[in-house]
Amino acid sequence: MLELKNISKSYGKNESMVLKDLSLEFDEGNCLAIVGGSGCGKTTLISIIAGIIEPSEGEVFFNGKNIKNIRDDIAVVFQGYGLFPWKTVRKNVILPLQLKHEKSEYHLADKIIEDLGLYEVRNSYPSQLSGGQKQRVALARALMAKPKLILLDEPFSAIDPILREKLCSKFRTYFKENDIMVVLVTHSVKEAAYFGDKILVLGNEENTGKILDNNLAGKMGTPEVRAIHNIIKKAMLGGG
Amino acid sequence: MTKKIFQYMVAFVTILLLWQLTSVFFDKNFLPSPITALQAFVELLGGRELLRHLWASCYRIVIGTLIGLIAAMPIGLLIGCNKKIDDYFGKIFDILYPIPKVVFLPIIVVCLGIGDEPKIFLIALVLFFQLSLTIRDAVRHIPMELINSMEALNPNRFQYLSHLVIPSCMPEIFSALRGTLGISTALLFITENFASITGLGYFITKSMDARRFEDMYAGILSLALLGVVLYVLIHLIERKVCRWKCLETIDKDE
Question: Do A99 and B146 touch (CB under 8 A)?
Fold first, then answer.
């Protein structure tokens, strides 16, 4: 279970609060989508959950333990993918194993490279890849950390709409099958509705967050799904 | 690659032509034609004297560069990675960096004697300051996205340095090495003219004093050749070490 307890974050002494007293509980095996407009604190929140930045107040727990003590259980895919330009695709993917000195597990990296259709470009550098390929490399690297919780920060933003839907569906299935809890940050209502079993809507003011249940996750294009889109939009605007 | 070689050949021939024209225009014995200078260069290479001086200069500049680089790496990384250390010790670099180190040559010679040591020390000293600041700035400019990405993998300090900080600084280090090559060669010339009996700087000045202008130009050509060879060597190592960066440059050029 992922628990956020009274999370607040402000930058600098006189700056306004990015997040204010945000609390939520979220069950394992599910996908949580965090949706909101620019500057509403989505990336800040995901960085706090990842343990990369400290909240001004509050704590984050995963399976009852403070996330500061279980960093190895959490993997992050950043918005710009965060691939190291000096490492080839394969070297980027095996990095988590290399850092943990698990050389015997390298075959798993080769398998995931193949599964994600990256075999042809395994010796290429990130600068030689397309947006979709970079995204898959970042995801493959995150999975190599064998996480129990994976955090995705706008992972599909740089990908064309057709490929985006395909990858969204592929990854959602993968995470469900492998029992990995996912927190997805997005500004896209459509993506949030497709991915999130629960949707945390962050507005631009009073960022205490609003949580919506979504029974239609994994479905697309139906009138019911479009109704969910409208509910999310209303919540984003503060009217829901 | 073939196109690049052709471009260099064209540049080389243009330089020779300009030299030839200048030589004809002034018609002075201190400015022989490039052919005369090249003949003297080839003849002197057959003997031992020029090679001895060339070797002495090569040894000093290579060792000086290596010492400067090895000393600058930990210091640059330290002040680049640690804001508090930079706040205090970084200021020492900011004050000392603009001072031309060559003014300390007499003191260095008094302390280290007239052998290779003062020449190597001065080159290393100048490179040390240049490279330390380059590395510090390169560390400061590592994209936040890559820092977050590495921190999310929970590395230890050594892994953080070896997988993120050092590789990200390498292009700037090579760029600085290439940029300082001209300064190092100039320093070499100056130091070899100060209480010295070996090196190309000494050979060039001695030839000029003796009015052996062909020999002098052979010495100048040797020094230029040394600079070019080192430049190419740095470039080749960079292509090997920073292959990813070279590919990015090629992609942009195309």
Answer: no
Inter-chain CB proximity B149 and A76 less than 8 Å:
yes
Which two tokens mark B202?
């000494």
**A147: nearest CA in chain B?**
B153
Q: Which of A2, A60, A26, A23 is nearest to A207 (CA)?
A: A23
Domain end call among A99, A130, A146? A146
Q: Which domains does chain B have, with CATH numbers?
A: 53-253 (1.10.3720.10)
Q: Where are the alpha helices (DSSP H) in chain B?
A: 2-26, 34-46, 49-81, 83-85, 91-96, 105-112, 116-140, 144-152, 157-160, 166-191, 200-209, 213-241, 243-253
- List of chain B residues whose C-beta atoms are within 8 Å of the C-beta of residue A152: none
Strand A57-62, strand A2-10: pairing: antiparallel
Verdict on whether the full-model pTM lies above 0.95: no
Chain B residues with beta carbon closer than 8 angstroms to that of A85 = 244-245, 248
Domain finish residue from A127, A146, A165: A146
> What's the pLDDT tens digit per position in B66-118?
999 999 999 999 999 888 888 888 888 888 888 888 888 889 998 998 889 99
| Residue in chain A nearest B167 by alpha carbon | A86
H/E stretch holding A165: helix A161-177
Pairs across A and B, CB distance < 8 A: 63
Test mutation, A76, A92, A127, chain B, max B CBs within 10 A: A127
CB A39 within 8 A of CB A62: no
Calculate the alpha carbon distances from B232 to A46, B173, B225 in Å. Answer: 46, 15, 10
* ipTM of predicted assembly, 2 dp: 0.80
